[in-house]
Known about the structure:
The protein is about 70% helix and about 0% strand. The chain has helices at about 20-40, 50-60, 65-70, 75-85, 90-110, 115-135.
Amino acid sequence: xxxxxxxxxxxxxxxxxxxxxxxxxxxxxxxxxxxxxxxxxxxxxxxxxxxxxxxxxxxxxxxxxxxxxxxxxxxxxxxxxxxxxxxxxxxxxxxxxxxxxxxxxxxxxxxxxxxxxxxxxxxxxxxxxxxxxxxxxx
Length: 138
């Protein structure tokens, strides 16, 4: 009887201990982010794309197969791939984001009569708007 062939070595050693826990945490973050993104499809004030970006980041670390499924999604995949490749944001998303920041700040300014809060939030929103506007366009 011929000897049994040795099994092929695994490309990655099985995760144990801390590595296994870390993988499970990344997967849990990814699943939670996808759940929030799904809710964002139906709830107008909950951002879908941001949560999908978080899910993609988490799945890339904890479940590459699920990250690939997000990248292949017919509706959200192109936006996610452009972000990964070039950090690009579609022009419509830029305009919407900046407009909503303006609306949010206006509501805050009309309802909160504290100059420090209004000014601080305004500066923060200006910084975020500047970041969004300076990203490449998709």
